[in-house]
Amino acid sequence: MTAVVEPELDLDEAFAALGDRTRRAMISRLARGEATVGELAEPFDLTHQAISRHVGILRRCGLIQQRVDGQRRPCRLDVDRMQELVGWISEQQREWESRFNSLESHLASVREERGR
Q1: How many domains in the chain?
Q2: Is residue 64 part of a domain?
Q3: In which domain, by residue range, is 108 found?
Q4: Contacts of the segment 53-59: beta carbons below 8 A, 24+ positions apart
Q5: Do residues 85 and 39 touch, judged by C-beta distance below 8 A?
Q6: What is the enclosing helix (H) or strand (E) of 86?
Q7: 106 domain residue, yes or no
Q8: pTM score, two decimals?
Q9: What is the pLDDT along the chain (116 residues), one digit of tens a residue?
Q10: Is 58 in contact with 17 (CB distance < 8 Å)?
């Protein structure tokens, strides 16, 4: 049985995961290419358990994928998933720009009427 995930909850999990600076740093590192959990852990003074927890969170919300390669477990960024988030942010940006443009037009007309 396939679980149906509501889009908003799906976004909530992804944005919540990105709310942590360690996970954002891992995403930034993976944007440059594949890395093992050990490589992702290098810049941090965290336990292996803490790093694995961060990787697990990123994997569960779909931001990264992990594959088995012998003894290695390389991670890579899920670009399609990141594009979904960028798409949502872009949609919000367009909406707010439209609202601000409407407000600007309204304020200009109010100023023009007062100037008469």
Answers
A1: 1
A2: yes
A3: 7-115
A4: 54/20, 54/22, 54/23, 54/26, 55/26, 57/17, 57/20, 57/23, 58/17, 58/23, 58/26, 58/27
A5: no
A6: helix 79-115
A7: yes
A8: 0.77
A9: 444 445 565 889 999 999 999 999 999 999 999 999 999 999 999 999 999 999 999 999 999 999 988 888 899 999 999 999 999 999 999 999 999 999 999 999 988 888 86
A10: yes
